[in-house]
Amino acid sequence: MRGSLVRFQDNEKFCWSRVDAPSGEPIYISVARNGVLIKNSNLGLLGRKLFSETDVDVIVQISMNIELFLIHDLRRIHIEADNPVQEYEAVLRQNLPIADLFRSPILRAFTALALDVSSLNPLEYFLAMPELRWSSEDWLNHLEAKGW
Length: 148
What we know:
Helix content is 44%, strand content 22%. It is of the alpha+beta class and 148 residues long. It has one domain (4-145).
C-alpha cells in the first residue's frame, strides 16, 4: 500500500509537499535554498524532525540515489540508450506516477520516497543510510551486488 500525496506547491516561491504514510502519519517535506527539511508534521511548523540537510551537493546526490533506488532500470539506460535523458524521463514516468507533477527533481525524489514507505520508521532508516551519500556509480554497484 502506498502513501497519499495530500497537497504540494512547487513554484518560484514555494517548494514543499505533504504526504500521508499508509500508517496515517503526516510527512512534511520542504526544499529551500538553505536545504531540505522533512518533519513528522501536518504543516511543517511543529513536529519531530526526521531529516535535515543543508549541503546542496549532498542533497543532489541523495535525491539522485533515492531515484536510483526507486527505479531499477537506470543502469540499462546509462549503458544502452541512444538518448539517456529521454529514456530516463520515460522510465521515471512509468515507475514514479508523481513524476510529471513536480518542477523540482529534489522535491520529486523525496516525495516519491515518502510515498513509497509504510511509516516513519523505514523513512528515517532509509534517510540515515550512509549509502545515500555515495556516488551514483557506487550506488549502482551496490544495487547490482545485492541482485536488485
